[in-house]
Design brief:
By secondary structure, the protein is of the alpha/beta class. It has 2 domains: 104 residues, Aspartate Aminotransferase, domain 1 (Alpha-Beta Complex); 221 residues, Type I PLP-dependent aspartate aminotransferase-like (Major domain) (Aspartate Aminotransferase, domain 2). It contains 14 helices and 15 strands. The strands form 4 sheets. A 7-stranded mixed β-sheet has the order 2-10-9-8-7-3-4, sandwiched between helices. It has a 4-stranded antiparallel β-sheet with strand order 11-12-15-14, with helices on one face. A hairpin with a 6-residue loop joins strand 11 and strand 12. The longest helix has 23 residues. The radius of gyration is 24 Å and the shape is globular. The termini are far apart.
């Protein structure tokens, strides 16, 4: 007993030495990304949740993708870390150079790598006032200061971007069509923006929703700037291709930028299943055309029905509508709560800084029909 006490006494460490000082990490002075709701805890009755909040594919993935998922795919080997076959398929479909393509775990990862590559403390980044939140978040993590260009009626203005440019500006980020507003710049406006920016400023254009666009005055960033050295294009498989769960996207830019991104990217960052499914998705033009027609039909129908109750939205451009409740009898919050009681989730816009608005993703046939049915019921007693 005595020896045990002796050993225990020798092993005793005073509490003050147990409180270790942690290595200091960066002070994070921005709001973290908060995804839309995927459940409704307050919903008492058991019912299927209709999620129209994340701009996912209304029709899911194509049959060619589902065939890949049904096959026995080995999970014991690392994937091709260069995504060679996928880059080749991207090159074939979009008539671009596979050596200027990089694939990532969602386009988010490529945004992150661009910020790591180009930005240091004290640099400036310009983003539209209302835009995809990860541009500002990754830029801030890299130590850059984020400047916001004012929009007019939720539309990006080239003049206001140029007004924010200074000697510290390194990158301009924008999505076209823009998320969450659904507005977009015309082809001539994008060309004008690039001409007016200094050559040493990288213009990053996110083409996430370009497939849905039908305006003759619009052109994708890739189509306009395929051969540009100071424009970088982002693309995703999470929207029209229906591969959001697999986390896969790609970027296109000057070979020197791509080489540098490959130098810093994590090895094996895109899993094999994602690569195979993305290749299959790119080959299914019939599914893409079906998705575009579905989106246009339901966007028009839903927009028309919403306007009956003084809920107005942007010109149809992507697979979502930004709903304004400024002239409606109900506020956005009140409408959102009534929908959630019926098991339907939309995306709140306060996190984007847009008051009294909601974002509605176009769903499949049954989801859209249910939404319109519940819409009428809600306003029946208002």
């Amino acid at each position: 007993m005595g020896s045990e006490m002796c050993i225990r006494d020798r092993l005793y460490i005073p509490e003050k030495y147990l409180i270790m000082k942690l290595t200091k990490f960066k002070e994070l002075k921005f709001k973290s990304y908060k995804p839309g709701k995927y459940e409704i805890p307050s919903l008492k009755e058991k019912r299927k949740i209709i999620k129209l909040s994340a701009n996912e594919s209304a029709l899911g993935a194509s049959s060619k993708v589902k065939a890949i998922l049904r096959n026995n795919i080995s999970t014991s080997k690392y994937p091709d870390y260069t995504s060679k076959l996928l880059r080749k398929q991207i090159s074939t479909k979009f008539k671009c150079d596979s050596n200027k393509v990089i694939c990532g775990s969602g386009s988010d990862e490529i945004i992150q790598m661009l910020c790591q590559l180009f930005l240091t403390k004290g640099d400036h980044v310009i983003v539209p006032e209302f835009s995809f939140l990860m541009y500002r978040i990754y830029a801030s993590i890299s130590g850059a200061k984020v400047l916001f260009s004012k929009e007019k009626n939720y539309r990006i203005l080239v003049d206001n971007i140029i007004k924010k440019v200074n000697k510290k500006t390194k990158i301009v980020f924008l999505a076209n069509p823009n998320n969450p507003t659904g507005t977009y710049l015309y082809k001539n406006e994008l060309i004008n923006l690039r001409k007016r920016l200094r050559k040493d400023i990288l213009l990053v254009i996110d083409d996430a929703y370009y497939e849905y666009m039908k305006d003759k005055n619009y052109a994708s960033g890739l189509k306009i700037f395929k051969n540009s050295k100071n424009v970088f294009i982002l693309r995703t498989f999470s929207k029209i291709y229906g591969l959001a769960a697999l986390r896969i996207g790609w970027g296109y830019g000057d070979k020197k930028i791509i080489d540098a991104l490959n130098f810093i990217k994590p090895p094996f960052n895109v899993n094999e299943i994602a690569q195979l499914c993305a290749i299959a998705a790119l080959k299914d033009n019939k599914f893409i055309n079906k998705s575009i027609k579905h989106n246009l039909y339901w966007s028009k129908k839903i927009k028309k029905n919403l306007e009956k109750f003084d809920i107005y939205s942007n010109k149809i451009s992507a697979n979502f509508l930004l709903l304004s409740f400024n002239r409606c009898k109900l506020s956005a919050i009140a409408f959102e709560k009534k929908l959630e009681k019926r098991g339907i989730i939309l995306r709140e816009m306060n996190s984007y800084g847009i008051d009294n608005h909601l974002r509605l993703t176009i769903g499949n046939n049954s989801e859209n029909q249910l939404f319109l049915s519940e819409l009428k019921k809600i306003f029946r007693n208002v």
